[in-house]
Amino acid sequence: MPSKVISFRLSEVEIQALSALQTSEDESLNQTAARLLRDILGTSTVSSQVSTSVDIREIVRQEVEAIALSTPSMVMDMREMVKQEVEVAISQLTRVGSGEK
Description:
By secondary structure, the chain is mostly helical. It has one domain (about 20-100). About 65% of the residues lie in helices and about 0% in strands.
């Protein structure tokens, strides 16, 4: 079956949420997005290391703190946006982990 390249843009908040879901520093954002999409579709060929919600929250907390130090005026808005993105990601990971599609 031939494959196709899929391309789309993500907002800065979406990029930050995606980078929080990387399994290692060696995994690119493209690889992370492909892995997550394959997991959601149930077509993953490798067992992925699923982070716990505590792991994800800690990673996001660290990212939010780093952003807060560089852009204090945007902190509250960023925290709310990141919180929403993390809740969506945790929900998706929970569904994938339970076998739902």
